Task: structure prediction
Amino acid sequence: GAGVSQSPRYKVAKRGQDVALRCDPISGHVSLFWYQQALGQGPEFLTYFQNEAQLDKSGLPSDRFFAERPEGSVSTLKIQRTQQEDSAVYLCASSTTGQYQETQYFGPGTRLLVL
Amino acid sequence: SQKIEQNSEALNIQEGKTATLTCNYTNYSPAYLQWYRQDPGRGPVFLLLIRENEKEKRKERLKVTFDTTLKQSLFHITASQPADSATYLCALDMEGYSTLTFGKGTMLLVSP
Result:
């Protein structure tokens, strides 16, 4: 079956532009996670959804970052007024139920470059 | 907050040898630890999970150990192959929630 997909794969934005990154989780997966991965670093947690409910957004670096999952499947991560420090790979992951100790399945990521 | 340290330098080994990667953590002891593999331009792929009450877990050529006294996990790849070349990430649960805290990863290069 299809895995987690993300679009676009690459995005170049001018500083100050708004961007929207899309994640299609594995069909039927209840939980969805967003991570930010800077060059040479491990993924860092941004936010977590269970169905349409955003249960944790403690990792969002500023109020310019906003995520939603209105129907409990596809999710969008929006970054307003992008800054150069937002340049990173944004990874989306999903898991079956989001239960403790469950494996997360990652998408290929969206590489964002802010000029 | 939890801090995770993995081998900071890339690990270069020869094909056929055993690769050993280290993951050390501070602060609280996680209930479980996961290892992922990440290839360039791709997302991490799950490899193994080990729980705090398990000392060792194996899967084919992979072996993971978990020492809660030393606050350390070791990840071994036996009979390594050039196709094993990738970055390996360890990840811990964040205080009992579903979200994970990742280390920086260790790049493994296996030369023929």
About this structure: Chain B has no helices and eleven strands.
